[in-house]
Amino acid sequence: MTKKLSHDEQQPTVMADKNHCLAKLLISANVKNRLEITNTVISPIAGLLVNRGHSQEDALAKATALIAAASPTNELELMLASQMALTSLLVSHTASQAYTAKTHSVLNAVSNQVIKFNRIYLEQINTLQKLQGKSQTQKIIVERVHVEAGGQAAIGVYEGGGVNDKK
Q1: Residue among 46, 124, 57 at smallest CA distance from 87
Q2: Cβ distance 29 to 78 under 8 Å?
Q3: Alpha helix ranges (H) inside 2-154
Q4: What tens digit of pLDDT does each residue of 134-153 get?
Q5: What is the DSSP secondary structure assignment for residue 41, as one 8-state letter?
Q6: How do residues 62-99 score in pLDDT, each as one tens digit?
Q7: Less packed terminus of the chain by CB within 10 Å, N or C?
């Protein structure tokens, strides 16, 4: 597990260097308590990478890059981005287990987990896009309407309702 940063420690590569990727991420996300966010949001991801054989420096850089890919602009988006980073790591780790599956039932179980993690990841992407105002809503604009002789037309904004609509 990666070591948590304490308030006493000197942090020259992370907090003092404004060009460090972690410092840039925390500044861009308008994070007020950077040390606390680092310990609670970024350290668990880095710890997972350390457990998989990465150095602490490398793990911190990769965790930061995974989170920064979502371009969080506030603390809520930063937390969601960290969950997305963990989900992404879980997908790749679980998918790699499919290669070592000894039986068909184990392969099915692992495949189902990968599918579930991918669904969660897609939901997280949609949620992040909604938070960032990038969600895709459908808007239909009718520019011309031709009403032939004997036809009827109504102009205005209408809300739902159809022939079988219950009231």
Answers
A1: 124
A2: yes
A3: 21-28, 34-37, 43-51, 56-68, 75-97, 104-131
A4: 766 667 777 887 788 887 77
A5: I
A6: 888 888 888 888 778 888 999 999 999 989 888 888 88
A7: C
Q: CB-based burial of residue 41 (10 Å sphere; 0-12 exposed, 13-18 middle, 19+ buried)?
A: buried
CA trace torsion 95, 101, 105, 111 (10° rounding): 10
Token pair recorded at residue 151: 């036809």
Which residue is listed with tokens 């988006």?
77
Asked whether the beta carbons of 45 and 66 are under 8 A apart, the reply is yes
Q: Report the predicted TM-score, pTM, of the whole model to 2 decimal places.
A: 0.63
Rounded to a whole number of angstroms, the CA Rg of the chain reads 24
Region 2-18: mean pLDDT is 42
**From start to end of the chain, where are the E strands?**
none
Tokens matching residue 52? 């998989």
